[in-house]
Amino acid sequence: MLNWGRRALTVCKRASGGTRQCSQAGGAPDAGEAPPRPQPPGVLGLAAFTKGDPELEHKLKVIMLETEVMRQEGQLVPPQEFMSPPIWGNLLKLGSRSGRRKYLEYLFKTAKAKEHQQEKKEARRQQFEEAKAAMGPREVLGMEEHAQTYGLAANNIFLRFYDTSINHFYNGRLAKACDFGQKLVLDCGFDRHMSRRENQNAAKQLMMLFSDNRFHKDPFDIHYTSLRPESELTQMLQKIIPTMYEPAFPMNVHEGSYLEVFPKGRLVYLTPHCREEMERFDHDAIYIIGGIVDKAFSSLKDLLQENSQV
To answer: Dihedral (C-alpha) 299, 48, 252, 161: value to the nearest 10 degrees?
Structure first.
């Protein structure tokens, strides 16, 4: 007889007349009632990807079994603890077995790279601790002796500029550009037409654009439109720039379209798939660039013409 190891719980209820009624629950389950089966690793949190669809749930189980078989065969598959729900969701979107195999190889190399970085970080920490222990306790100097000591860690004529001070300086440039800079709009409403890798590449390019613009002595006033919080592009960009939604951070993020933010008469959409060629730069105009990576997009021209409603 199975011993379920559950302590009998006393569930007490009060009837409407005030009489206390007690009943016992727990112990072994009733005859014919199966115990709850634990879900396999990776299934938890995947309801957002399967959405209760029986076909998607069946496909997900097949992909999990396929991944485990590849791992047992010695192929390049990341460890089980590395397989998060978003990764299973990406595998669910891939239609071919070869595509899933290449994606798993990429994840395996990424996991190994992170593991090596962690090992190097731990080795550097140990070297620092050993060097610190070899130096011995730091000598405490008096006021006069400290005033006469010259060096990088003591008195010197140079001021140290911390990274925080440098960031404040560059962010101040962007704050000034909000009032006096040339406005530039990034249309980020193409995330649904790009794959995960293209969204990741687009997020990296948006980050590089923000960084290079911040270093310029006369930066643009960049506005990111159609950047919805639930979109894949927004989530990837927020991983790279975690402070993008903070009020003090000089990054203009809009959930709505550029037509809802700026007057339509001043908008100019820049695209190579147009009939009119821009021959003169207008400082009063607001120029728009499509935030899309079109490496594998076949009908980009029609999509840009549909999205550029100016």
So the answer is: -120
| Residue whose C-alpha is closest to residue 256's, from 289, 227, 236, 218 | 227
Q: Pick the closest to residue 279 from 288, 293, 267, 268 (CA basis).
A: 268
Query: 188, 254 in Cβ contact below 8 A?
Result: no
Nearest Cα residue to 210 out of 264, 179, 253? 253
- Please state the pTM of the whole predicted model: 0.63
In this structure, the strands spanning 20-25 and 9-14 are antiparallel
Measured at the alpha carbon of residue 84, what is the angle toward residues 81 and 87, in degrees to the nearest 5? 125
From residue 191, alpha-carbon distances to 229, 254, 293 in Å are 12, 15, 9
> Residue 21 pairs with which residues in a beta bridge?
13
Q: Can you tell me the distance from the alpha carbon of 50 to that of 43, in angstroms, rounded to the nearest whole number? A: 10
Q: How far apart are CA 98 and CA 18, in angstroms?
A: 67
Per-residue pLDDT reduced to its tens digit, 290-303:
888 876 555 555 55
Domains for the chain: give ranges and CATH numbers: 47-111 (no CATH), 164-308 (3.40.1280.30)
Q: For residue 188, what are its two tokens?
A: 């980020």
- Model pLDDT for residues 246-273, shown as the tens digit of each residue: 988 999 999 999 999 999 999 999 887 7
